[in-house]
Amino acid sequence: MSKILLTGITGQVGVELQQTLTALGEVVGVDRATLDLTQPEQIKEAIAIIKPDIIVNAAAYTAVDKAETETDLAMAINATAPKTMAAEAQKIGATMVHISTDYVFDGKNHTPYTETDTTNPLGAYGKSKLLGETGVREACDRHIILRTAWVYGSYGHGNFVKTMLRLGADREELRVVADQIGSPTWSYDIAYIITSLLSKLTNIPSGTYHYTNSGVASWYDLAVAIFNEGEKLGFPLKVKRVLPITTADYPTPAQRPAYSVLAKTKITQALDIYPPHWRESLRQMLAQWYSLT
Predict the structure, then answer these.
(1) pLDDT in tens, 249-281
(2) What is the DSSP letter of 234?
(3) In 83-94, which positions are buried (b, 16+ CB within 10 angstroms) versus exposed (e)?
(4) Is residue 125 among the annotated active site residues?
(5) In this structure, are strands 181-182 and 217-218 parallel, antiparallel, or unpaired?
């Protein structure tokens, strides 16, 4: 059985990984209170003490708009910290797993992005995550970089699904962006796929993999689905109308990729697992969230 160091245990994916990774061995979880990822020396010391066989970095600075002004903080957590972890992993012969994002792409494609497509992040968040990927690749031979997108879940901080349920309980009409396209992805499914990759490490080559739920949607499509499924479950909702708007109608400090669908052929062939459709996973998450609230 392996010893696994897991960062970001209070985040959406980190909470799920704390459960799924126990199938592989002892999980030593850390959060920002026990390990400050802006301090490389703290990271090095923690890894030296724990001596993990596997490091899973589920921590990230994810405030996309704030990253435009908090660039140094985003870089410290998303770029420097994973590179430091990977370098320490290399020293002790550990495997490094790092979660990345669709924001490393510019969204100008019209077909799903493959792992080898050219990256071109639009904002500070995407640039920091891309530098993190590069650092992991360069520092650690045995690594898995998992790019995912449009993540939501029952745990961690706020996300689009929880925000829609909160707003939908207070308002009769909502306006939601309809010209950004991606694949909504349940945090549990990400944790499950990372655990599956690690369970087959001897057969899985190091490198970059894409994973999201299957199917595509706009934020508008996702909002409509949240309210349809939420109503069936009994969530208290006042919302009667969801109106589609454009990105230009809802300006934000950071520019988002208009199209960020990720191709999943590589990972489905490696694991012989096909991702569930986003609507089915949304249904399961909402049922879970309803039971928790």
Answers:
(1) 988 999 999 999 999 999 999 999 999 999 999
(2) T
(3) bbbbbbbbeeeb
(4) yes
(5) antiparallel
Say yes or no to pLDDT of 201 above 90. Answer: no
Report the CATH number that the domain containing residue 46 is assigned in CATH.
Answer: 3.40.50.720
State the Cα–Cα distance between residues 207 and 137, nearest whole angstrom: 8
251 part of a folded domain: no
Would residue 75 count as lying in a domain?
A: yes
Question: What amino acid is encoded at 267 in this protein?
Answer: I
Dist. CA 145–CA 182, nearest whole Å: 19
pTM metric for this prediction: 0.96
* Enclosing domain of residue 77: 2-157+184-214+259-276
Residue of 61, 103, 113, 125 marked active site: 125
Question: What's the alpha-carbon Rg for the chain, to the nearest Å?
Answer: 19
What is 32-95 written as a DSSP string?
Answer: TTT--TT-HHHHHHHHHHH--SEEEE------TTGGGT-HHHHHIIIIIHHHHHHHHHHHHT-E
Domain presence at residue 194: yes
Q: Which helix (H) or strand (E) holds 165?
A: helix 160-170
Phi/psi at 3 (5° precision): -100, 125
Q: Tokens standing for 219?
A: 């934020």
- DSSP secondary structure letter of residue 248: G
The count of other CB atoms within 10 Å of the CB of residue 293 is 9
Q: What is the pLDDT of residues 51-94, one digit of tens each?
A: 999 999 999 999 999 999 999 999 999 999 999 999 999 999 99
Question: What's the domain count of the chain?
Answer: 1
- Of the pLDDT bands very low, low, confident and very high (cuts 50, 70, 90), residue 156 is confident
Within a domain: 234: no
pLDDT of 202 strictly over 90: no
Alpha-carbon distance of 99 to 80, in angstroms, equals 14
Backbone angles phi, psi at 274, to 5 degrees: -105, 130
